[in-house]
């Protein structure tokens, strides 16, 4: 079974192990003398909602557009920062809840036989060790059914423990033990700041113990016991604005105390495994991960020791699925820059939702890895973004519809963030987020979901029908905007970032308009906006090839001051979109490959998420060799001992991007159909997967040997036509011959019925 395991405690965050149940979670360190849990609750941000729209934005917009048209880039950027930046420039940021400490009184002797692990198949973290020859064991998990973190401690001899809370840099109001229902209850609460700050409360109590339990100061003490079960509950006013948070926590703990530890564990396992067990992956050498500690396996992989990379990548794939389940559940907030795991009161980039790629990347594996439910929090936030984005569109740009810039927070703030010209004035973040609606539909065929969220697509497109301006070539472009976080060089040697018509914007808007048109047709709405979208589509800029054979990033083929930049925004068309394909647009696919090659030659792919994005590019290009190289680079350059991605510092998007790339190498969805083993590395010569999902509501399992498909199983959840592409070296035969519609070399099309299962074998 896949697991992360170590033979020493964690000495820092990058070695600690994450647990979570969507809304709440913790980082575990595994010190034998003290169980330290860094606690997080996903809605505990730095303050309440506020408006940051610059009152001078509309006058600034006209002025900036005029300066850009005149080629006065520096002047345009100056005015943009004066009149269009957010006021204040920063939105709210994510904060930790605090620290839970369980300090033990154990024999004063050396620790032996120490093992710390996170079992990905059960989502249970454990620590085992001996002192004076006596075994001590602890297990910790975050239970979605109980809405609590559950901790179990056992010893072969009696021990004592003191339970307390601390942290938040003194940003709390109460830290005490109350006696509630004759039970000591450890309380830690306060508010996050500002008159509308988020109130929070965490509470902890002993559920079961054979020792004596009593209060001592602001700690709960357990003495002379061999077993101890502790639970911790967390709530905030974000989810419960008018409720007594202490009473909510106490009720959680009271309800949890009604069950034995084994019952709580079984409830947790039933819930978690219903998600995790949907997908499996077997690759060569993966058993090595069971024999070799994970930190050593990572070191061996960096040294390119045979087998270590395969074992690590298989483990990494399962870890990505684990993180998705642990960090994003229906009813929770979506995964931010650090998922839900953050220990800093002022985290890097505010641990916000950065929507010029990072938040979107977090959800790339959700559908393909059979975790559609985990995608839902993103759509809940997106609706909040739409409502706030309508005001931003109206007050900043005098447009209908909605827009969002390159960040948002839990309140759905859509005003420009930061004072950094290469990123700040980019009005396309909401449009990119909206594309996840049709992506979810394509995987699930859920028309009720599409109908419920169509208004978001409509409003996103409506904004651009009014925001786009006509350039000198008669094309409709965004102005002002940027190519996210990159800059260009003018002929006079000056550098600029603000521009008109960056390639990524045109690609996103093309995708958005096409999605709205497709959704309208599926739902039969006859939206009056459709004719305008169809007309404007013909006037959007098309992909262009530049002087280096690359896909152009700007409307002008500028030189770049940083040709190895981490963003490769002009290849949005390749991934996650499908506007570039080796099958349908081979010339553009060659230009995309040249774009990546140029970036890498100048040091690109040096951050974890960027490396992961490039791996996905190569999967789409069906380039298995370079895909594997990028996955290896992701492991060697951008992976911490606990397998968390490094930007650096820690950002979780690379974990999900890497997981998505592995899935894309094995099964790929495209407008033409499903592609089996499109980018299978030769070192994965033998293996199998089950439960990966593709467009059309199809769940696929496959087995291969010597890089040749042997068997394929198709579960048609909703029925319909299934189109399969597979390596031309393979000939697959469908057992249900009467279902076949079309068949050719490397291609098979057949009809399915809802919940039908279809079997293909190699001949």
Structure write-up:
By secondary structure, the protein is an alpha+beta fold. It has 4 domains: 3-45 and 94-277, putative glycoside hydrolase family protein from bacillus halodurans (Beta-galactosidase, Chain A, domain 5), CATH 2.70.98.50; 53-87 and 347-541, Glycosyltransferase, CATH 1.50.10.10; 543-555 and 566-665, no CATH class; 676-762, Immunoglobulin-like, CATH 2.60.40.1180. It has 18 helices and 31 strands. The strands form 6 sheets. Strands 1, 2, 3, 4, 5, 6, 7, 8, 9, 10, 11, 12, 13 and 14 form a 14-stranded antiparallel beta sheet that branches. Strands 15-24-25-26-31-28 form a 6-stranded antiparallel beta sheet. α10 packs antiparallel against α11. The longest helix has 26 residues, at 372-397.
Mean pLDDT: 96
Number of strands: 31
Count of helical segments? 18
The gross shape turns out to be globular
How far is the N terminus from the C terminus? 32 Å
Largest sheet: 14 strands, antiparallel
Helix share bin: 25-40%
What's the CATH class of the largest domain, please? Mainly Alpha
Beta-strand portion reads 25-35%
